[in-house]
Amino acid sequence: MKKVLITGSSGLIGSEAVTFFIKKKFKVYGIDNDLRSKLFGKKYSTKKFIKNQLKFKNFHFFNVDLINYKSIEKIFKKLNFDLIIHTAGQPSHDWSAKDPVFDFKTNALATVNLLQLTRLYCPKAIFIFTSTNKVYGDLHRSKFRIKELKTRYEVFDKKNNLFSINENFSIDNSIHSPFGVSKTSADLMVQEYGKYFKIKSATFRCGCITGPNHQGAELHGFLSYLVRCVINNKIYKVYGYKGKQVRDNIHSYDLVKMFWEFYKKPGYGEIYNAGGGRKNSVSILEAINIIKKISNKNYKNFKIINKNRQGDHIWYITDFSKFKRKYKNWKITKNINTTIVEIIETLKKI
Ligand SMILES: NC(=O)c1ccc[n+]([C@@H]2O[C@H](COP(=O)([O-])OP(=O)(O)OC[C@H]3O[C@@H](n4cnc5c(N)ncnc54)[C@H](O)[C@@H]3O)[C@@H](O)[C@H]2O)c1
Q1: I want to staple 76 with a disulfide (CB 3.0 to 4.6 A). Which of 46, 117, 129, 265 is the partner?
Q2: Is the pLDDT of residue 311 over 90?
Q3: Domains delineated in the chain
Q4: Ligand 1 binding residues, C-beta < 6 A
């Protein structure tokens, strides 16, 4: 049996990857230290997924902190992994501004720890990293023409064509937030271990990822948190841009399918943008309307605050055509409506 190590195995992407690779008959090893409950509160703990995962006899779990090199080394010494999917991380801009040192250790140092251990103990393994679109910072606004439409901002290139962000975009000279920089550092290290040390690896620069396992909190996981607010008629605070800020959304299942395709045909230090693309993009105002329609709720409890979060994108839509050109089998299988329906159904069961 092939062995996969999944870090952040109780989180949104990690837990989706655990389910996927159990079905593919891998021996699955998860690492998670329930950081989400420390950052956002017990309500958002991801521990609840572990009990179910442990029902599968090919799942094994380690509650360790990836910052601790010695603890992780013990695991790498025992197990010769074929695949490493590194999803663990500190996900919030606001938290990174409160404690940049902790953020850097969690996002950057932990990634180098894993890369170095891969190099030492399983150099043939394939290493997949969940990076972020925040590597592109606040997107050099001067290069775009941003138009304000009725329910969203939209971005056009110089020829007046609708636009989306590909991998050639610069990562320099813009505001990223400390989170954006710690993830960019990790992203560059993944590339470097690929190109310099010849570790088969890829960094997936993700837009908004979501799905029923998302423990969406105010500071991270916008769509999942918004659905919770609409369903429970709780106040949702929109930070700036009049609620017209745009994000594309991808279901965690479709992201894990990207990892699978890469595993079957890997490269060295590859970079791919990963997101739902234009068809699955929404502004917050549009998202509220879709959720209201699907859930049949007359929600009005959102509050628009004038000031946006520093470094927050006014608009971001992923161009995933580079990945699609190389991995022709891959496609989006769950659009934004299906994803919202799944989140609502899961919340009803809680
Ligand atoms: N969800 C998104 O919209 C999104 C978008 C872009 C990038 N990403 C990136 O993808 C990754 C996964 O995102 P997610 O939504 O699944 O996050 P998540 O918070 O749901 O899951 C991350 C998991 O990692 C664990 N973890 C964190 N630090 C750890 C450490 N030091 N040791 C052991 N476990 C640790 C947490 O306990 C948590 O269960 C993150 O690194 C994030 O930066 C996510």
Answers
A1: 117
A2: no
A3: 3-349 (3.40.50.720)
A4: 8, 10-14, 31-36, 46, 65-67, 87-89, 91, 106, 110, 130, 132, 183, 206, 208-209
CA distance 335 to 294: 14
Question: What does the pLDDT read at residue 139?
Answer: 76
Contacting residues for 261 by C-beta, under 8 A, at least 6 apart: 323, 327, 329, 330
Eight-class DSSP state of 165: B
DSSP secondary structure letter of residue 46:
S
What is the token pair recorded at 138?
Answer: 């606040």
Q: Using alpha carbons, select from 299, 309, 22, 58 the residue that is nearest to residue 180.
A: 309
Tell me which of 209, 247, 255, 273 to substitute to probe ligand 1's pocket, judged by most ligand atoms within 8 Å of the beta carbon: 209
pLDDT of residue 232: 92
198 C-beta neighbours (distance < 10 Å), count: 13
Cα 207 to ligand 1 centre (Å) = 13
Taking the whole predicted model, whether its pTM rises above 0.90 is answered as yes
Query: Residue whose CA is closest, atom 25 of ligand 1?
Result: 8
User: How far is ligand 1, taken at its centre, from the CA of residue 194, in Å?
Assistant: 22
Fill in the DSSP letter of residue 314. S
